[in-house]
Design goal:
458 residues; Rossmann fold; 3 domains; 15 strands; elongated; RNA-binding
Length: 458
RNA sequence: GGCGUCGUACCCAAGUGGUCUAAGGGAUCGGUUUGCAAAACCGCCAUUCGCCGGUUCGAAUCCGGCCGACGCCUCCA
């Protein structure tokens, strides 16, 4: 039985989907005003892991990830660069999708963009006004009245009376019923340039939280299974989303809220000014592979902070190597075809089902690796067990996605290796070592085994 | 100021009342293997879980205090 830690109840709960065997999943996507950084991708990678576990446990998953393509930052950028909003957002949306695919993240079923769902948002805002949960201000903005929703603050348990106001509360909010009311619709201002939509309240654009409520409802229905995001989105984003959605349709909104913790870099929050700021492409350029990035993120539990440092690449590289080494050892055995898994798969699944305990599952997997290696060293591994092992590895990788595709050995390297074998037969060690260096220079390693040389990528 | 998360070996990191004299990975060291290296494989590596008290037959796990780190507090995953 799958169990998740539900942020809403602050308990680990059995996962029971609304419709048996099916899961409706909504994950907060990026604001496409700049390149997403690896902190963002920690969350997306956690969501990918969740999805892969759901799929592996036999659920049918319908996954929606929004693209926020209109907000202050996107508008600012489009004005600053003198380009239409859509040009900016399309550019960064494409970059985002490239990064997703380079990290081997399974794509969502839909990526709805906020700007394509403004009508649905307007409709929802009208419903809220009608039910007295929202009101129009003089300038033509619409605000949600948090006093109209008794359970406001349930997710984060914030005491609204004691909250210290940050100086970001702008002066034009003096007209609000409650200074903490949030915008559903923002009236047009000059700095918005060409960005506006017509609405019953005049020109303007939707507030940030609105898109997730309107789009999740459109694609997943009023009430769905899982909503994910980073912890920082609990407040205000998710809190506001709940308020809007519940008040608009009077049904429960989301059953399970899952939040992933922050990624720290060199012990602190990533920030451009400190310079500890990485994008996926930065890491790839530094020679880190997408598998190594996945390993680093997935070797910690999603609810703990991960401190990312470049030195961790080594650990990832060695661990991945170890798995691949076993895989290639097993591949050399004539294995009987069989559909079973080793016993350890049960513990492995238990760990995953227990709130996605990926480090624990990894530990089980590495325990199994040691057992099989010992058994192979003692030459007591049966063909059937070898076959089970290969199945286990591929099942493992269907969830972690950390084994790179193995390249076939280039002909040039094969030729050199053959030449080196000749030199070794003649005990011409000098020439042999020279050829080994040459092969190494081409990115391949030679291992001299009892069955002849084996070539592996470095 | 309010709310919250966390502190486990040299590093990373599970475990949240008994099977814990605490998984797993990396590094180091020792060994097997090897023409030699490299790689691979095996073994070793915390009587102890930030500190101090308490509850309990029993605590890394629960409670209180202290110290330390980090985050959120109106548009940052």
């Amino acid at each position: 039985m799958l169990r998740f830690y539900n942020s809403l109840t602050r308990k680990k709960e059995d996962f029971i989907p609304i419709i048996k065997g099916k899961v409706s999943l909504y994950t907060c996507g990026p604001t496409v005003y700049d390149t997403a950084h690896i902190g963002n991708f920690r969350t997306f990678l956690f969501e990918d892991f969740l999805k892969r576990v759901l799929l592996a446990r036999g659920f049918e998953v319908y996954h929606v990830m929004n693209i926020t393509d209109v907000d202050d930052k996107t508008i600012q950028k489009s004005v600053a660069e003198g380009k239409p909003l859509s040009e900016i957002t399309e550019y960064y949306t494409n970059l985002f999708k490239q990064d997703l695919s380079s990290l081997k993240i399974i794509p969502a079923d839909v990526y709805p963009a906020a700007t394509e769902h403004v009508d649905a948002m307007i409709q929802m805002i009208e419903q809220l006004i009608e039910k007295n949960h929202a009101y129009v201000t003089k300038d033509g903005s619409v605000f949600f009245s948090i006093d109209s929703y008794k359970n406001y603050g349930a997710l984060t348990r914030l005491n609204m009376d004691k909250m210290q106001h940050s100086d970001r509360v702008s002066t034009d909010e003096y007209s609000l019923d409650n200074p903490q009311d949030f915008a559903l619709w923002k009236a047009y201002k000059d700095e918005d340039g060409e960005v506006f939509w017509e609405s019953p309240w005049g020109k303007g654009r939707p507030g940030w939280h609105m898109e997730c409520s309107a789009m999740s409802m459109e694609y997943l229905g009023d009430h769905f299974d899982i909503h994910c995001g980073g912890v920082d989105n609990k407040f205000p984003h998710h809190e506001n989303e709940i308020a809007q959605s519940v008040c608009a349709v009077n049904t429960p909104f989301v059953n399970y809220w899952l939040h992933s913790e922050f990624l720290l870099v060199d012990g602190g929050k990533m920030s451009k000014s400190i310079g500890n700021y990485y994008c996926v492409s930065d890491l790839l350029e530094k020679g880190m592979t997408s598998e190594e990035i996945r390993y680093n993120f997935l070797s910690a539990h999603y609810q703990t902070k991960v401190n990312f440092t470049l030195e961790k690449q080594h650990e990832a590289k060695r661990s991945i190597h170890r798995i691949m080494e076993l895989q290639s050892r097993l591949n050399e055995i004539d294995s009987d075809l069989c559909n079973d898994f080793p016993l350890e798969v049960e513990q492995f699944n238990d760990a995953l089902e227990n709130n996605l305990d990926s480090p624990k599952a990894l530990a089980v997997f590495f325990d199994w690796i040691r057992r099989i290696n010992i058994s192979m060293d003692e030459k007591t591994l049966s063909n059937k067990e070898a076959s089970k092992g290969l199945k286990f590895i591929s099942y493992f990788d269907s969830i972690y996605g950390i084994l790179p595709k193995t390249d076939s050995v280039p002909q040039g390297v094969l030729d050199l290796s053959k030449e080196r074998e000749g030199a070794r037969q003649n005990k011409d060690w000098e020439k042999s070592d020279e050829l080994r260096d040459q092969i190494s220079g081409m990115g391949w390693m030679v291992k001299d085994t009892n069955d002849g040389p084996k070539l592996t990528p470095k």
